[in-house]
Task: structure prediction
Amino acid sequence: MSSVTAAAERIAPLVMRTPLVRLHVDDAPAQIWLKLECLQPIGSFKLRGAANAMLSVEPDVLRQGAWTASAGNMAQGVAWCARHLGVACTVVMPEGAPATKVQAVERLGARVERVPFPDWFEIFETRQFEGMEGFFVHAFDDPAVQAGNATIALEILEDLPDLDAVVIPFGGGGLSAGIGAVLQEARPQSRRYGVEVRGAAPLAAAFEAGHPVHIDHRRSFVDGIGVPMLFPQMWELAHRVLSGSLVVGLDEVAAAIRTLVRSNNVVAEGAGAAPVAAALAGQAGLGKIVCIVSGGNIDPDKLAVILGGGVP
Result:
């Protein structure tokens, strides 16, 4: 816990303390609360982990700049911090990454290199890529990143100390590991769930098998979560602090995005709306349920399709 409180102090100048608000839906199966990380300066919680990782090292370490591999949100987090620190930034992104996120990274002054999805995904294991120099910020498998993410839990406990459950988008696992660890210690009776989408749910498969397994991975408009396989080291963290995985369909995520816009005037990307979809379906149970609305960076054309009643 000390590393998380230290992270909260370290990142305070760069990160917004986001509000926790009720979802205004009368027929919800529980009290659903929204932790609005979509309101961060980059539109995503990833700023917390990126800031803690980059502010934790000596300035000389960043002399050659920083780089990361990201589908978009960690890319923005590292680029934002690099601009603040006055260092160069390069981001390796998968081909087909959302245009909104690519353009945001470029506006922050970072150089973007697009590569095929398998080559991009391999970086998370090797932590290297030809031509990349400088300080590498791992999107999820880094204690400093996880501690930065976990500052979200400290804020939730201050605002709603008697929460019953938290539902967290599960991508690589860094957000769930951070928040889950804090709540396991500070409120062990709470239920802590990772949420995934059908067709991209390696955490659910790992819970079923008792170990990480390869899945038949399908990419979708929910680009912020879902990978072909959960890394073993992240499984070791996740299965100790999480109660399980909740899996929702793309149609449910699209419906949750519409609900957030219409009920709370909140724009969420697919990953950010997935926890709300699970909570509205009753999967998180009863009581006070906190949904981590992890980001709001969604392509406008996809949002238009969803608000029109479709699924991109």
Q: What stands out?
A: The radius of gyration is 18 Å. The longest strand covers residues 191-197. Strands lie at 20-22, 31-36, 66-69, 89-94, 111-115, 135-136, 165-169, 191-197, 244-248, 288-293. Residues 2-46+143-307 form a domain with the Rossmann fold fold (CATH 3.40.50.1100).
